[in-house]
Amino acid sequence: MKVYTKAGDTGETSRYDGKRVAKDHPDILIMGKLDALMASIDSAAVNVRESATSSKIAKILFILDEIHTKLWQTAGELSLGAPGKNVKNEIKIEDIKFLEQSIDKYNPNISFFTRFKTESSSRLNEARVRCRNLESALTDKLRKGEIRKEIYHYLNRLSDLLYVLACFIEKKEN
After folding, report:
1. Taking CA atoms, which of 74, 92, 109, 115 is between 20 and 30 Å from 11?
2. Residue 107, SS3?
3. Closest by alpha carbon to 123, among 21, 42, 24, 44?
4. What 8-state DSSP symbol labels residue 144?
5. Which domains are assigned to the chain?
6. 0.70 cut: is pTM over it?
7. Cα–Cα distance between 46 and 54 in angstroms, integer?
8. Residues 106/165, Cβ–Cβ less than 8 Å
9. pLDDT confidence tier of residue 52, bands split at 50, 70 and 90
10. Residue 84 bridge partners (DSSP)
């Protein structure tokens, strides 16, 4: 199977639903932001795995894997415009609660802002920034009712969790 198709040489691409759109269409730009977030979470997970020094830090890998699964399903949902087809595990209220519980569990009660100095914490912080960027890009769709509110709420909590995890790891590694 060839990786290149040449179908995008004219500045268009295919959505998951088969519809052809311009590569600078807002939906495609949003998908790019979501893809960047997933890639940064993967990068952070690889680094956390390589530097895991405690069982509590190792459990962060499970959390990051769960997040990645939800984001992958969200990519399908956003591309289709709704859950369905291959999207069988969409974000639900329980997933938002899982993030909130994880925030409460890993919150190191930082009373001041600190720069992230370890590779693991800085990669998690980069993922947080990418999450905020995606959240901002989806705000108009939320207002228009074009995405489920659970997706937006999940991303809002996710950026908080990524920050808390970065602070937690920073504190543990220093």
Report:
1. 74
2. coil
3. 44
4. T
5. 14-173 (1.20.1200.10)
6. yes
7. 15
8. yes
9. low
10. 87
